[in-house]
Design goal:
Helix content: under 10%
Distance between the termini: 25 Å
Shape: globular
Radius of gyration: 21 Å
Number of helices: 2
Number of strands: 23
């Protein structure tokens, strides 16, 4: 609460799982000596149930370094199956440099216990101690200030994130490894007033590691799931692919089509999308991973799609969270093509309902 203090914040949560009958909780302290993200430090402790993989070998490019870059909310979490109990201790310090460069140094200890049948090197409990360096470069970015926070207003150049992680083999860590990841995102004008967005992610581990440190691809297909998700593969089955080295890209194009408009308040938006993924595993993955088959998309995984959003009348005041949610309401379809297409059309196609980013 900025009315209480602009120089520190406290947060926490407590949750009870009806399915596993377990309590989850966590707490976080964040300090900003100057009242903004020019210099910040923080520490957190949590015992939580999280998605296997994805969090550590990869970067969420839409988030700033001062935010929690791993936690994800949304309907997709309801359908996840391969989850892990994680006890985590973390501390970090970061700064924003004058040259549009952000720097964050972090330290972390985690104990990971899969909540599903899985072993790595004949054990199902993993201990990590890690040091981490993250960089964010946003050349030419323009911001608006909201209290003590800066919000990205415009950026004509891509935004880059880089991360290097060093695993420490100590009394608290079992794995001495190296990992690197990068993310690039760029919004641009297209089609005479239309918009485009491209995102590229890539990462690498220097050896085989448990699934919690692999790239388990962010898939979004389940029989009960009817929603689409940007930055994910809407025809890929949950936990279908995992990799020690990966690259993926997402391209979204939204042309400005005046003939779609129905009056001033109903202005449907046509969006084209294509997603691609590549990955590789170190040799003989099934020699160390057991009970869960490992498969990487060493051929290119391809998924084109098309959506129609802004189907509802817009509020008269288009300046709040509700109007942003309404803009995203729509329908769409995605199709799985290429080397990993399935035998039937029904298996390859996914009809989706857009819920404004939920």
């Amino acid at each position: 609460n900025e009315q209480m203090s602009k120089r520190f914040s406290l947060g926490g949560f407590v949750a009870w799982g009806f399915a596993d009958q377990e309590t989850k909780f966590g707490a976080l302290l964040r300090i900003t000596p100057w009242g903004d993200d020019r210099l910040y430090a923080g520490a957190s402790y949590s015992q939580d149930l999280v998605e296997s993989g994805f969090r550590r070998l990869g970067i969420r490019p839409e988030r700033g370094l001062h935010q929690n870059i791993y936690r994800e909310y949304g309907i997709r979490r309801w359908y996840l199956t391969d989850m892990e109990y994680v006890q985590s201790r973390e501390a970090w310090i970061g700064t924003r440099l004058p040259t549009d460069l952000g720097l964050r140094l972090g330290w972390r200890q985690e104990t990971v216990t899969p909540a599903y049948d899985y072993t790595f090197a004949d054990t199902n409990r993993f201990h990590f101690e890690e040091a981490e360096v993250l960089l964010r470069w946003a050349p030419g970015a323009r911001y608006i200030k909201n209290g003590s926070h800066r919000l990205l207003n415009s950026n004509n150049a891509p935004i880059f994130h880089l991360r290097y992680t060093q695993g420490l083999e100590t009394g608290a860590g079992d794995f001495a490894y190296r990992a690197a990841a990068m993310a690039m995102t760029h919004r641009f004008a297209a089609f005479r007033g239309g918009k485009g967005l491209i995102t590229i992610n890539a990462g690498w581990n220097d050896r085989s590691l448990p699934r919690s440190r692999m790239r388990v691809y962010r898939s979004n297909y389940a029989k009960r799931n009817f929603t689409d998700l940007n930055g994910a593969f809407n025809t890929m089955r949950y936990d279908e692919f995992a990799a020690d080295m990966f690259a993926e890209g997402f391209l979204y194009l939204s042309p400005k089509l005046r003939w779609l408009r129905i009056g001033k308040r109903i202005q449907p938006q046509l969006n084209f999308a294509i997603a691609a993924a590549w990955g590789a595993l170190y040799s003989s993955p099934n020699a160390v991973h057991a009970l869960v088959p490992m498969r990487a998309p060493h051929h290119i995984y391809l998924e084109p799609g098309i959506t129609l959003t802004r189907l509802l009348p817009m509020p008269k005041k288009d300046d709040n969270v509700i109007s942003a949610w309404i803009r995203g309401i729509g329908i769409g379809v995605y199709y799985r093509v290429g080397a990993y297409s399935l035998p039937t059309i029904k298996e390859n196609i996914a009809f989706r309902l857009s819920l404004g980013g939920i």
